[in-house]
């Protein structure tokens, strides 16, 4: 699927003036959250990004994210449509290096998004997250070839692609009910404000990152 059909170019345009993380990571974060929650409105999405200490999203990006989240929930709820889900990754016209790094970023975004849902996970899901963490820990120098080439990339891509399909079978809740949002008093300071005052360290993503030293098997 090319970049126009996949939405890659649309996301690039919408997020053109926002560079906190890549569009693949944002798409992964959105997907992770939408495997366990119903799609929120723009105001709640803005609150989620603020609490994760990201810069405010441009209006075009916020609108696209809200629409894509609705589409993703609709897709993942349908057993047949769910299997057609695809992470936001550049097409095969792009260098393998670029695609591997985008998949790595998507994996990290998914783990962050799912991590803030406060969901219990099964042993099988925990194992899948551990394997996804291996993808998220891939390290490649600019001039370094990905071990295993296209074949290995397609293998890990297909694995990553199926994670949200499997995780999305749980009952969904409102994003407003997750601790990141619901735990805030009306007059509570945001994480970013507390960090600015020196009262909190810069947060790590809510992901168990014990596998940074590993590479995908």
Describe the structure.
Residues 199-217 have low confidence and may be disordered. The protein has helices spanning 3-6, 8-14, 23-34, 42-51, 59-77, 79-82, 96-115, 123-136, 149-167, 179-182, 191-196. With 217 residues, the chain is an all-alpha fold. The chain is built from eleven helices and no strands.
The ordered string of helix (H) and strand (E) elements is: HHHHHHHHHHH
Radius of gyration: 17 Å
Largest sheet: none
Number of helices: 11
User: How is the quaternary structure best described?
Assistant: single chain
Q: Uncertain spans, ≥5 residues at pLDDT below 50?
A: 199-217
Structural class: mainly alpha
Helix content: 40-55%
Strand fraction: under 5%
Topology, number of strands: 0
Global mean pLDDT? 85
* C-alpha termini separation: 26 Å
User: What does the overall shape look like?
Assistant: globular
Characteristic key phrases:
0% strand; 217 residues; disordered C terminus; mainly alpha
Provide a concise account of the structure shown.
The chain is mainly alpha-helical and 217 residues long.
Helices and strands, with pairings:
Blueprint: H1 3-6, H2 8-14, H3 23-34, H4 42-51, H5 59-77, H6 79-82, H7 96-115, H8 123-136, H9 149-167, H10 179-182, H11 191-196
Helix pairs in contact: 3-5, 3-7, 7-8, 7-9, 8-9
């Amino acid at each position: 699927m090319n970049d126009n059909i996949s939405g890659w170019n649309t996301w690039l345009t919408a997020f053109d003036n926002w560079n906190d993380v890549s569009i693949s990571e944002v798409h992964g974060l959105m997907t992770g959250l939408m495997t366990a929650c119903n799609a929120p409105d723009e105001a709640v999405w803005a609150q989620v990004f603020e609490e994760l200490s990201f810069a405010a999203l441009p209006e075009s990006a916020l609108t696209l994210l809200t629409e894509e989240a609705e589409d993703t929930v609709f897709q993942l709820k349908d057993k047949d449509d769910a299997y057609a889900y695809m992470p936001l990754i550049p097409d095969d016209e792009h260098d393998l290096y670029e695609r591997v790094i985008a998949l790595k970023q998507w994996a990290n975004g998914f783990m962050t998004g799912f991590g803030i849902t406060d969901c219990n996970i099964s042993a099988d899901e925990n194992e899948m997250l551990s394997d996804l963490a291996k993808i998220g820990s891939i390290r490649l120098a600019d001039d370094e070839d990905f071990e295993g080439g296209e074949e290995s990339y397609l293998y890990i891509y297909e694995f990553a692609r199926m994670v949200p399909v499997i995780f999305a079978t749980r009952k969904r809740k409102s994003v407003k009910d997750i601790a990141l949002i619901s735990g805030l008093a009306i007059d509570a300071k945001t994480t970013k404000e507390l960090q600015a005052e020196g009262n909190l360290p810069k947060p790590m993503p809510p992901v168990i990152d014990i596998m940074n030293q590993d590479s995908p098997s």
